[in-house]
């Protein structure tokens, strides 16, 4: 399970919680402009925009969970079991595998608008990375400062939805989340007014009663509503440190604590890591379940015209500052 959000607070931010019961060997990966991508059906992509994000690296190939490119276009893949359907390659279509979708779009497009032109003839195809690495069932959120969309490969083909919420979680498909949000239109961050009956003088007896009914469970539909409520009512100074801190607070509001969600196998689903990407500055911020100190990698401090993948290992232990 995962939650992804956008947020604009002076700068444009994009990030997510990755919720999983195990580590997948994730590392912060910076792919420079001249790293050679070998796409299965679309040929070589030897020159492209640089991008940074979290990835599993196999055979020197970054399998991105999410990333942002140097132009500020960001994308994340989220679990979509039971709904994702990948097709067989078709002649005349832009056949792209799920694991290539992020590098292909971020490598060739500066905006969502450019990406939509490519996607108009795209086909998400059932070609795994290897026999040992089957395809994950995913859908994706793609965003820049001006636009946010959801991409879902289902049995009807690739569906593209405008996303005014700037939020995505998991199953069910996005149209359900759009409809479900209507159930919460009465929620408010302010103090509620009585609508129970004209002759009754009912008053709130505490703070926060305007949001009674805001779901607190960990289901995808509930996390979608809660993340949207936290994001759209969020307030912060328009300064980088304050904005990044606030972004992580929003993600904390939908994070998984060990023990609150058990998989069918009895394992604990936790927020393995959370990330925040500044699309304007190309900075990737992250923290992990075991170390909630915010850490950062700035792509523009590296040589972006290189051909070699750059990797940063995830620190494991908690970083506690002892004050005495």
From TrEMBL:
Q: Does the keyword field hold Plastid?
A: no
Describe the family membership recorded for this protein in Swiss-Prot or TrEMBL.
Answer: Belongs to the peptidase C59 family.
Task: Identify the species of origin.
Answer: Candidatus Copromonas faecavium
Q: In which pathway does it act?
A: Lipid metabolism; bile acid biosynthesis
Tell me the keywords, alphabetical order: Hydrolase, Lipid metabolism
List the GO molecular function terms: choloylglycine hydrolase activity
Which enzyme type, at the first EC level?
A: hydrolase
Q: What is this protein called?
A: choloylglycine hydrolase
Please list the reactions this protein catalyses: taurodeoxycholate + H2O = deoxycholate + taurine; cholate + taurine = taurocholate + H2O
Which Gene Ontology BP annotations are present? lipid metabolic process
Q: What is its EC number?
A: 3.5.1.24
Pfam families the record matches: CBAH (PF02275)
On the tree of life, the source organism's domain of life is: Bacteria
**SUPFAM superfamilies in UniProt:** N-terminal nucleophile aminohydrolases (Ntn hydrolases)
The Choloylglycine hydrolase/NAAA C-terminal domain sits at 2-310
């Amino acid at each position: 399970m995962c939650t992804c959000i956008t947020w604009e607070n002076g700068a444009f931010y994009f990030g997510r919680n990755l919720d999983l019961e195990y580590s997948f060997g994730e590392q912060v990966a910076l792919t420079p402009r001249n790293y050679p991508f070998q796409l299965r059906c679309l040929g070589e992509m030897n020159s492209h925009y640089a991008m940074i994000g979290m990835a599993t690296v196999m055979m020197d190939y970054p399998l991105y969970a999410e990333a942002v490119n140097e132009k500020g276009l960001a994308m994340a893949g989220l679990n979509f079991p039971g709904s994702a359907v990948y097709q067989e390659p078709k002649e005349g279509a832009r056949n792209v595998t799920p694991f290539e979708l992020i590098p292909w779009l971020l490598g060739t497009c500066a905006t969502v608008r450019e990406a939509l032109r490519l996607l108009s003839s795209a086909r998400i195809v059932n070609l795994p990375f290897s026999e040992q690495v089957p395809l994950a069932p995913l859908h994706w959120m793609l965003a820049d400062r001006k636009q946010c969309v959801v991409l879902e490969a289902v049995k009807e083909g690739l569906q593209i939805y405008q996303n005014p919420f700037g939020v995505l979680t998991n199953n069910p498909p996005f149209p359900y989340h759009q409809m479900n949000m209507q159930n919460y239109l009465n929620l408010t961050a302010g103090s509620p007014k009585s609508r129970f009956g004209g002759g009754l003088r009912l008053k709130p007896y505490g703070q926060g009663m305007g949001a009674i009914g805001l779901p607190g469970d960990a289901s995808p539909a509930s996390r979608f509503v809660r993340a949207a409520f936290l994001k759209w009512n969020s307030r912060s100074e328009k300064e980088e440190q304050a904005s990044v801190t606030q972004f992580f607070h929003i993600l904390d509001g939908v994070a998984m604590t060990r023990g609150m969600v058990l998989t069918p196998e009895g394992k604990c689903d936790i927020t393995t890591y959370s990330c925040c990407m500044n699309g304007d500055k190309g900075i990737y911020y992250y923290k992990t379940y075991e170390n909630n100190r915010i850490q950062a990698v700035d792509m523009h401090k590296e040589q972006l015209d290189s051909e070699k993948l750059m990797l940063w290992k995830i620190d494991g232990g908690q970083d506690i500052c002892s004050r005495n």
